[in-house]
């Protein structure tokens, strides 16, 4: 079954009509790691629903390009460079946004690093680097946002991965880091629920045209072999993750906190051994 035909058969054109425009009108969203890929897709989705967007990542050039892209689509957007491993830099970037637009309504923690490496060949610094970006970074982003959040009503969203619960060869660093991200999500949900702050996570499956999948399935053969295993038989689109983020940010999700949502074409049903990522 060809991926694209199956894609169209399942999803058709419904994608354009999923949400009421203006659902998030007047909200301010900060997206860490928002200069590319899935996270930029989330920024676009939140913007389409009416939110003002602030993106940040390490590279000032990539942030500027993302802001220009969002503005060219008619959205209200700003951005600044910050490494999520640097708490003070993240806090300063958020303070700038809050000064400009007021309390933060939506905070997305999506910065991540990944590469394929066998544990026996991975240096301590290689392991630490990914844990620092994904796990410490998620703590930093949410912790730095805490004094600036809308109360009640703020929605925090971590971007995790199936690797958090399904062990994978050659990804011990990312698996351990994302497992920690899941627990940060659930602990903060519990601690901050009393203040009307919801904390959830999205666990994307394989998403087309992303750096993540370029790194995990770098050849056409690897991609085809991987795709054949996915229960829905196709990669997801950035829009699929964006729409879930819009939902979790909206009033429709007001009673949901501490939840981790798979958006993965059924991939998680198969467990970690389904595909052998070769380093
Ligand atoms: C083995 C590697 C390596 C590799 C880096 N290292 N790449 N080890 N194989 N391919 C080691 C280095 O040798 C070094 O250890 C340590 O990691 C730090 O490397 P730096 O290059 O100094 O790190 P830094 O500049 O901070 O860059 C971080 C990075 C890089 C993660 C290494 O790839 C990056 O910037 N990635 C961001 C983009 C990205 O990864 N996107 C995909 C995310 S998607 P030594 O010991 O030599 O000092 C994703 C999707 C799948 O995560 C979901 C799964 C969870
Ligand atoms: P991507 O395009 O590489 O996105 C990663 C973003 O994080 C980039 O904007 C990058 O920009 C930023 N970033 C990296 N390190 C950072 C740091 N230390 N501080 C601040 N920002 C940093 O990758 P993607 O594939 O779209 O992945 C996005 C998210 O989805 C990640 O959390 C990933 O784990 C998750 N995910 C992806 C897939 C997939 O199919 N792709 C599957 C499951 C989960 P700079 O380089 O400018 O810093």
What's the short version?
This protein is an alpha/beta fold.
Question: Which characteristics define this entry?
Answer:
single chain; 279 residues; alpha/beta; 7-stranded parallel β-sheet; 13% strand; globular; disordered N terminus; binds hexanoyl-coenzyme A
Describe the protein.
This protein has 279 residues and is an alpha/beta fold. It has nine helices and seven strands; from the N terminus they run αβαβαβαβαβαβαααβ. A seven-stranded parallel sheet has the order 3-2-1-4-5-6-7, with helices on both faces. Helix 2 packs across helix 9 (238-249), helix 4 packs parallel to helix 5 (124-145) and helix 5 (124-145) packs parallel to helix 6 (172-192). The chain starts with a helix and ends in a 16-residue tail after the last strand. Mean pLDDT is 93; it is low at 1-9. NADP nicotinamide-adenine-dinucleotide phosphate binds next to helix 2, helix 5 and helix 7. NADP nicotinamide-adenine-dinucleotide phosphate (NAP) is lined by residues 33, 35-39, 57-59, 62, 83-85, 110-113, 133, 137, 159, 161, 204, 206-207, 210-213.
Discrete helix count: 9
Can you summarize the main beta sheet? 7 strands, parallel
| Secondary-structure element series | HEHEHEHEHEHEHHHE
Q: Structural class of the helix and strand makeup?
A: alpha/beta
Which quaternary structure do these chains form?
single chain
Q: Low-confidence parts, pLDDT < 50 over ≥5 residues?
A: 1-9
Mean residue pLDDT: 93
* End-to-end C-alpha gap: 28 Å
Instruction: List bound small molecules.
Output: hexanoyl-coenzyme A, NADP nicotinamide-adenine-dinucleotide phosphate
Q: How large is the radius of gyration?
A: 18 Å
Number of strands: 7
- Record the strand order, biggest sheet: 3-2-1-4-5-6-7
Principal-axes shape call: globular
């Amino acid at each position: 079954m060809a991926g694209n035909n199956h894609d169209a058969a399942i999803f058709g054109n419904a994608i354009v009509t999923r949400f009421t425009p203006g659902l998030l009108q007047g909200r301010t969203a900060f997206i860490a790691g928002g200069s590319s890929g899935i996270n930029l897709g989330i920024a676009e989705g939140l913007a389409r629903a009416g939110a003002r967007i602030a993106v940040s990542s390490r590279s000032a050039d990539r942030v500027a390009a993302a802001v220009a892209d969002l503005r060219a689509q008619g959205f209200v957007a700003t951005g600044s460079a910050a490494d999520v491993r640097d708490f003070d830099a993240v806090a300063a970037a958020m303070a700038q946004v809050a000064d400009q637009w007021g309390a933060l309504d939506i905070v997305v923690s999506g910065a991540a690093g990944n590469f394929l490496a066998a544990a026996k060949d991975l240096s301590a610094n290689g392991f630490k680097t990914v844990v620092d970006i994904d796990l410490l970074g998620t703590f930093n982003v949410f912790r730095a946002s805490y004094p600036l959040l809308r109360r009640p009503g703020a929605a925090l969203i971590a971007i995790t991965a199936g690797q958090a619960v399904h062990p994978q060869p050659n990804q011990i660093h990312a698996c351990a880091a994302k497992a920690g991200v899941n627990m940060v999500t659930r602990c903060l949900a519990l601690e901050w629920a009393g203040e009307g702050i919801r904390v959830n996570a999205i666990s994307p499956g394989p998403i087309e045209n992303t750096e993540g999948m370029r790194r995990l399935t770098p050849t056409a053969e690897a991609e085809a072999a991987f795709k054949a295993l996915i229960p829905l038989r196709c990669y997801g689109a950035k829009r699929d993750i964006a729409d879930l983020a819009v939902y979790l940010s909206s009033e429709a999700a007001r009673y949901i906190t501490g939840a981790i949502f798979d958006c993965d074409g059924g991939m998680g049903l198969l467990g970690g051994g389904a595909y052998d990522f070769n380093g």
